[in-house]
Every structure is written in C-alpha cells, then in structure tokens.
Amino acid sequence: MSNDSPIISIKDVSKFFDHVVALKNVSLDVAQGEKVVIIGPSGSGKSTLLRTINRLENISRGRIVVDGHDLDDKTVDINKVRMEVGMVFQSFNLFPHKTVLQNVTLAPIKLKGMTKSAAEAMAQQLLDKVGILEKSDVFPAKLSGGQQQRVAIARALAMSPKIMLFDEPTSALDPEMIGEVLDVMAKLAREGMTMVCVTHEMGFAREVADRIVFMADGEILEIASPETFYTNPSHPRTQKFLEQIL
Ligand code: ADP
Ligand code: MG
After folding, report:
1. What residue ranges are annotated as transmembrane (predicted)?
2. Which residue's CA is the closest to the ligand 1 atom numbered 20?
3. Which of 53, 88, 136, 154 has an alpha carbon 20 to 30 Å from 193's alpha carbon atom?
4. Which protein residue's CA is at the shortest distance from atom 5 of ligand 1?
C-alpha cells in the first residue's frame, strides 16, 4: 500500500438497526498518522461509526477498507484487522480479577503468542509511558478512573496497533482526572499514531486534531480544521451544537 492511500477508507456507509438509521451515507478517509476528532449530539452515530471500523458492527451498505483490508471481504481475517485497531471506550472494561500488568500482557500472550517475559517487558514500558508503572501489581478496583483509563490505553497499545479509536474516553471521569488521560492521548498523537477520537474536549481537539468531523442524525454534516470548526462553522447544526456545549 502506498503511503498516500488512506489507512481508513469509509465509503457511502449506511447502518440500520431495524428501522433506526444509525449511519446514512457516511464517507470519510483517514490518512496514516492523521488525528480525526468526531463530535456531535448523543445518538448521532459516532459510536456506531467507530465500531464499524473494527467490525464490532457490520454495515448495511457501503464499503470500509482498513489498512488495505476490505472488511466485507469474506477472506479477510477480521481478528488480524482488529489487532491493528486498538479501541478505548468510555467505560474502561479492565479485567477486574487481573492485575494492571496482567491486563496489559493478556492479549499479546494469548493472541500474538508473545512469551510472558517479553510481554511483561513491553507492558512495563507502556505502563511507564502512561505514567502508571508503580501500579503494575494492583487490581483495577484500587485505581482511580483516570488511572484505569490510562491502563486501558496501555492495554490497547500492547497489541502494537496502527490505529487507535477512542470513544468518549474521558466522559465517565471526574473532572480532575480528564487532563491526565488527554495528556496521554496527546502524547500518542505526537508520536504519530493514527487516531480517531470521539470527544467533546475542545482543548484537546484544538491541540491535536487535524480535522474535526461533525455528525448529526447519522450523517456527517461538516468536516473542518479545528480553527475553522470552532470559529467559523459553516453548518447551522454545528453552530447550534457549539452554542450548547461551549
Ligand atoms: P452516539 O455515539 O453518537 O451517541 P450511537 O452510534 O450510539 O450514537 O447511536 C446511533 C443511533 O443508533 C441511535 O439512534 C441509537 O439508539 C441507535 N443504536 C445504536 N446501537 C444500537 C443497537 N445495538 N441496537 C439498536 N439501535 C442502536
Ligand atoms: Mg456514543
């Protein structure tokens, strides 16, 4: 694959849940290393769109190609694609009966056949990177929400993904913990990770996003640079939404 073909290509994608139209003709290309922030009101299809990228949702129409793999192609090994796409959710979903270190080493050992010692060495590096190495041996319940979310990020990174998807990673956090998670995400962005983030954190979006995508009612209504998006949005729905959250 050449460098200028998008690492994620979403073309004319629609998704129906019975009679609910969750996505309506959505098209979006994401370049390697690009950071895209998706915002929009609740129920606008943001989570559904993210979930289609690693086929946690099947699409009803259209085409999605991730790192050269057409997700609809029956011969594509979806588990292989999923290893390339890390995902972090609003709820941290750590394994409660495993330590922090075990949470991070589990998938590389099981799915990638990494040795325990190699996985632990890598996990320690990642935990250090997210600033939580000293908690390696504790159980998730002993951690704050911000700490748990940083472990969840380390766990996703342990599969060496090419793409990271974040679905409102800070919206379940107490305000004083939001910054520590956004800082980790910004660091990842600076290192060149391709990122698609659903977040309404404007400071983060302004600093990190290459483009902001605004969704409403399952459609992409506007795609703009952060500068244009926040100061001079073109779509009336965007203007109205920004007035509500700012
Ligand atoms: P957002 O993340 O922007 O809040 P979602 O992608 O979660 O929006 O939801 C988009 C629409 O699809 C909503 O109307 C929601 O109720 C519907 N929806 C999402 N997931 C399901 C599901 N598993 N079953 C039925 N409807 C769903
Ligand atoms: Mg959502």
Report:
1. none
2. 48
3. 136
4. 45
Domain with residue 229: its CATH number is 3.40.50.300
ipTM exceeding the 0.95 mark = yes
Q: Residue 149: CB within 6 Å of ligand 1? A: no
19 lines ligand 1 (CB under 6 A): no
Q: How many independent structural domains does the chain possess? A: 1
Nearest one of 110, 144, 138, 107 to 123, comparing CA atoms: 107
Residue 130 lies in a domain: no
Q: Report the relative pairing of strands 61-66 and 8-17 from DSSP bridges.
A: antiparallel
Any atom of ligand 1 within 6 Å of the Cβ of 148: no
Residue 121 lies inside a defined structural domain of this protein = no
> Is the distance from the beta carbon of residue 213 to the nearest atom of ligand 1 less than 6 Å?
no
Range of the domain at 167: 8-95+162-243
Q: What's the CA-to-centroid distance between 89 and ligand 2, angstroms?
A: 9
Q: Which pLDDT tens digit goes with each residue over 57-90? A: 999 999 999 999 999 998 999 999 999 999 999 9
Q: Could you tell me if residue 73 is inside a domain? A: yes
Closest among 203, 174, 175, 232 to 185, alpha carbons compared: 203
Would residue 187 count as lying in a domain?
yes
- Residue 3's SS3 state is coil
Q: Which pTM was predicted? A: 0.96
